[in-house]
Design a protein that fits this description.
The chain contains twelve helices and eleven strands. By secondary structure, the protein is α+β, with helices and mostly antiparallel strands. Strands 6, 7, 8, 9 and 10 form a five-stranded antiparallel sheet that branches. The chain has a two-stranded antiparallel ribbon with strand order 1-2. The N terminus is likely disordered.
């Protein structure tokens, strides 16, 4: 999903309109200048100078911009005047500069806003006693939280705290993928408030409606590059327009030119009737633009955090730091991440199914190859037999020639070597015998499977237990008898010397 950092403003715009929901940021407002006719060769000049010297009402890369193109220079879309600067912001002639890349000079209204904010956070004079200190802490808490109003003076309106104020704690820096499409590719993103299945089922009608919006010119052809699901039942459709010249050549309409046409008031209302909530040109940023963006941290973001985000960038060539303000933006990025995870999982499932199908095809193909090899071998043998018989018929009645006799001698020699006991035939016979024995033993082992009834097994166990007990009893008797024999032997040995003394 491309991110939209606010909106651009043309000098001839009279009534600003709110930026459509769904873009990143969405803090500013959009003012457009209606062009009298759609022309790809002569873009409308609004009379103002854009961020990079462009004269068209257009965005680049991430879409549009932070802030608004008003005379204040910092943008009223942030409420406090302390928010992000313009990302491609176009200022009126009363400002000294615009955008994130050239901080505009502060006007008296902005200075008063800063003074009021500082007074609300540090020294309110609403009650004139020690309760003002408690009120200052309460205002600081509201500023940290990013919501509420800071009362500081009875004669001055309170300060409105939003999540875009520089004191809000709920800020972080994430990373977004930079588009790598060129302006010549002509890719423009249209975000529809409809489901993907509805867009795909009515894709042809959608193309015809877009062609009518472009004036119904027969030299223009609207093509759909891709359709992608987005959170909150939205769908991203990437289109490009091909323009055919009378001489037969064709080219893609540049993305910035097509985007500028879609941003015209009457065209934009027609797109909104089709369900388009956001349109942006998908074009890459130049190295100079990326460098200038990274050098100046967005308003309200701590420069130290911005520098650390640049250092921690995992892929500086493809990713760019993007400020995240508030829980809504975090939730939106989380939904986008979940959506991309689902898409990746779906793609992995498709790849897994393709791999399974390829494995099945491979198994079938290998089986067919083996079958064809066997068939080829059989045909080769049949062909050889036919050749032998044909040669026998052809040589019938002729004497054996010298080369044939020499060939017969060689064949007899080979046959004798093969039939020798210690040569190939003997070894082959020995191997064949071993293979037969192994097959025989394997078959015997496979057939020798006995099953014993549970009752019979229990009786066998009981019988063996009784035998064991009998053997134990017999062993104990033998041990007792051995003790008695030893006692007898000991008595006999003591009685022998006594009898010898009596006889002497």
């Amino acid at each position: 999903m491309a991110f939209n950092f606010g909106a651009t403003a043309g000098a001839g715009a009279a009534n600003p309109t709110a930026h459509p929901a769904g873009a990143f940021g969405g803090f500013g407002t959009t003012t457009t200048t209606a062009a009298p006719a759609f022309s790809f060769s002569a873009p409308t000049n609004t009379g103002t100078s854009g961020l990079f010297g462009a004269t068209q009402n257009k965005g680049f890369g991430f879409g549009t911009s932070f802030g608004t193109g008003t005379g204040t220079g910092l943008g009223s879309g942030l409420g406090t005047g302390l928010g992000f600067g313009g990302f491609g912001t176009q200022q009126q002639q009363t400002t000294l500069g615009g955008g994130l890349f050239s901080q505009p000079a502060q006007t008296p209204a902005q200075s008063n806003q800063l003074i009021n904010t500082a007074s609300a956070l540090s020294a309110p004079t609403l009650l004139g006693d020690e309760r003002d200190a408690i009120l200052a802490k309460w205002n600081q808490l509201q500023a940290f939280w990013g919501t509420g109003k800071g009362y500081f003076n009875n004669n001055i309106a309170p300060v409105e705290f939003t999540q875009e104020n520089p004191f809000c704690r709920f800020k972080a820096v994430g990373y977004s993928l930079m588009p790598n499409n060129k302006d010549e590719d002509g890719l423009v993103v249209l975000v529809f408030n409809r489901k993907e299945i509805d867009i795909r089922s009515q894709q042809q009608q959608l193309v015809e409606s877009l062609h009518k919006i472009l004036g119904g010119n027969q030299t223009l052809t609207v093509n759909v590059e891709g359709v992608k699901t987005m959170p909150d039942d939205q769908t991203e459709v990437i289109i490009y327009v091909v323009e055919r010249s009378p001489n037969g050549t064709s080219r893609r309409v540049p993305a910035t030119t097509l985007y500028a046409h879609f941003e015209q008031a009457n065209i934009k209302s027609s797109l909104q009737q089709l369900g388009v909530s956001l349109s942006m040109a998908r074009t890459e940023l130049s190295p100079a633009q990326v460098k200038q963006l990274l050098q100046n941290p967005p308003a309200g973001v701590d420069p130290i955090i911005w520098e650390q985000a640049k250092v921690d960038n995992p892929d500086p060539d493809k990713l760019i730091p993007v400020p995240m303000v508030g829980f809504k933006e975090l939730l939106r990025r989380l939904k986008v991440q979940d959506q991309m995870t689902k898409q990746h999982q779906t793609r992995l499932d498709i790849i897994s199914e393709d791999i399974s199908e390829l494995q099945k095809n491979q198994t079938t193909t290998m089986a067919k190859i083996a079958q064809y090899k066997r068939k080829l071998m059989a045909l080769s043998h049949r062909t050889l037999q036919v050749l032998i018989k044909q040669e026998i018929q052809r040589k019938s009645g002729y004497a054996i020639q010298a080369d044939e006799e020499q060939l017969r001698v060689q064949l007899d020699t080979i046959q004798c070597e093969l039939n020798a006991p210690t040569q190939f035939k003997g070894r082959l016979n020995e191997l064949m015998s071993q293979i037969r024995m192994q097959n025989h033993f394997g078959a015997v082992r496979a057939e020798e499977r006995y099953y014993i009834d549970a009752d019979l097994l229990r009786e066998i166990k009981q019988h063996l237990k009784q035998q064991q007990e009998g053997l134990s009893h017999l062993i104990s008797i033998i041990k007792d008898d051995l003790e008695d024999i030893k006692l007898i032997e000991h008595g006999l040995n003591e009685s022998i010397p006594i009898r010898g003394g009596v006889f002497s």
